[in-house]
């Protein structure tokens, strides 16, 4: 089979990019390859909050790449209403809609210092950009009934930030894609085909081959196996941000009608509850970054998630029935910034590495990538900082990353229930994690600053993964002379 563009991966980024290509160029032959049941897909597991300002942390202004990511999220916030309208099925007269048209961000009485700084940063960003919001009293949040010692001390309502049903959006993208002439193949891309330094197609796991003028790798965290074919040292390695969530249905109370969430912490997205309608609620999400994902979410962190949702949001959640579990791998580059655009050899593009907010960013990313593929040579300014072929983007010094790892560990231990007598402070925990961080960084061929959850993944990585990582670092960061 010969096509103009082959997209390897059928998550939100693969489908959206394919759709934007045929919308711009209706005669283009586009094929999307991906397993129909989407194992490991982040999109299928996502709470699909369309959050931009609610995701802000106090480090957003510290580095141009962080600011660029925020700019992309703001563009996506503006884009979603039209994007959903464009996914309406003209024949059936229906389409995916916002399941919750607003978001409460709550700061609990026992919030960590990092969460408190994030909350302040959210409020400052809302004011700076004149984004519609208001501060609310906890008593005015419908459905909120935490245990007394977890009552929010501050809360914000963000008018334009809500959520959609990720599974419904995927279905709508597939319907719109089929109507627009996209071909869908149920299978896996096994290898990139290339000739004379140019990528010429993909080989599928069943041995068949697709010739293509351009190939887009959008296989989420699984993209790494295809990227391993490139010269080492070009693209930051991808890790799995394993995430679990639980979908429940109410029995005794109507539940929430808006997204409710906590602010973002360094190593974790905020805890959130997304109402999906008819008393169905999505409670998410855990995040453990690993090189090798286990087959399901860990019990320990899931227990923590459920306890905190009932304690901080609504004790009556304890009476809800579990409908299903969600589990998937967020695609997490070593430096946590997305991998978007040309990936080295001519004809190869990446649409991955979006970590925690790729669902929200997908309409904007897809549109710009489609432009890039149709007009090779020009890189849209908004995507330029995320060009995949790069040395790791470091937003702090190595020493600062050790400090952050330490404070993050102490805060997490405290959240999990660590309580020390008045005559001891947390220094023993801090000292141990500082040592861990230093020993972990000694495993690396180059000293680089890593975010806490990535550092933890490197600490736990097998020697084979460390070798792979070091091959990248040695090539990406050659020693002077
Ligand atoms: C629990 C959880 C909650 C989240 N919540 C949010 C949120 O609220 N808001 C937000 O914006 N983002 C959220 N995210 C992040 C978001 O889901 C991701 O950033 C985004 O969905 C990534 O989309 P993707 O298409 O790149 O990857 P994926 O959805 O992982 O899609 C990749 C697809 O490629 C397929 N595939 C794998 N290997 C191959 C191969 N060799 N060939 C072909 N296909 C292959 C996979 O089966 C999969 O279907 C969340 C993620 C998780 C896990």
Automatic annotation (TrEMBL):
Residue intervals of the FAD dependent oxidoreductase domain = 4-372
Assigned keywords, A-Z: Oxidoreductase
InterPro entries registered for this protein in UniProt: FAD-dep_OxRdtase, FAD/NAD-bd_sf
One GO location term (cellular component)? cytoplasm
One GO molecular-function annotation for this sequence? oxidoreductase activity
Q: Which PANTHER family match?
A: GLYCINE OXIDASE, SARCOSINE DEHYDROGENASE-RELATED
Which protein, by its recorded name, is this?
FAD dependent oxidoreductase domain-containing protein
- Species of origin reads Streptomyces tsukubensis
Q: Species lineage, top-down? A: Bacteria, Bacillati, Actinomycetota, Actinomycetes, Kitasatosporales
